[in-house]
Design brief:
heterodimer, A: mainly beta, seven-stranded mixed sheet, B: six-stranded mixed sheet, 11 strands, 58% strand, globular
């Protein structure tokens, strides 16, 4: 199947700093990517839909100024957590839609963010 | 919006036994139902999916059934093995497979040797 990577896999930062997470589709072009957040022992919650060349669509309750999404190319979407606080600590997972595989979504390995 | 409920939240089975996980959904317009397996510290991996024009689908030891009238679908794992131990999520979406997914709460499966 198609491969989606995320970088970094783990990041620890101080409160008030910004953190950028990259999501890449390695062997296909993805016009649409999705960003999820997962707290320990909980389910995945969709944060936003990232569309190449246009603004992201955020889910209700997700602050767009807090979680900046940029989908500048067909293989890369980035999520920037601005002015991070301890409550932003979570597992962030992206997925990418592969039009060559019946639009199936392939998930990245996730990024563990810890804000001190 | 769509709401997906999943039961049970935890499931412990003996190796070789079967495991069944059930999900219900609220939006009758949903027509794509994937199941994912997530191991600790990793992203979810698709294990099987079903579309609303099919009632049942099987892939080796894994099968999924769908009842559109009742708005529920189930995952069946037969002859469980220790490597089946993981968290399993059901999901639902409206339209194509690549549309927005709503996930169930997850089921932590433990297969005891």
């Amino acid at each position: 199947g198609a491969v989606v990577s995320q970088h970094p896999s783990r990041v620890i930062c101080k409160s008030g700093t910004s953190v950028k997470i990259e999501c890449r589709s390695l062997d296909f072009q993805a016009t649409t990517m999705f960003w999820y957040r997962q707290f320990p022992k909980q389910s995945l919650m969709l944060m936003a839909t990232s569309n190449e060349g246009s603004k992201a669509t955020y889910e209700q309750g997700v602050e767009k100024d807090k979680f900046l999404i940029n989908h500048a190319s067909l293989t890369l979407s980035t999520l920037t957590v601005t002015s991070a606080h301890p409550e932003d600590s979570s597992f962030y997972i992206c997925s990418a839609r592969d039009p060559g595989s019946y639009n199936e979504q392939f998930f990245g390995p996730g990024t563990r963010l810890t804000v001190l | 919006g769509e709401n997906v409920e999943q039961h049970p939240s935890t499931l412990s089975v003996q190796e070789g036994d079967s495991a069944v996980i059930k999900c219900t959904y609220s939006d009758s317009a949903s027509n794509y139902f994937p199941w994912y397996k997530q191991e600790l510290g990793k992203g979810p991996q698709l294990i099987i999916d079903i579309r609303s024009n099919v009632g049942e689908k099987k892939d080796q030891r894994i099968a999924v059934t769908l009842n559109k009238t009742a708005k529920h679908f189930s995952l069946h794992i037969t002859e469980t093995q220790p490597e089946d131990s993981a968290v399993y999520f059901c999901a639902a979406s409206i339209g194509a497979a690549g549309n927005k997914l709503t996930f169930g709460g997850g089921t932590r499966v433990l297969v005891k040797p």
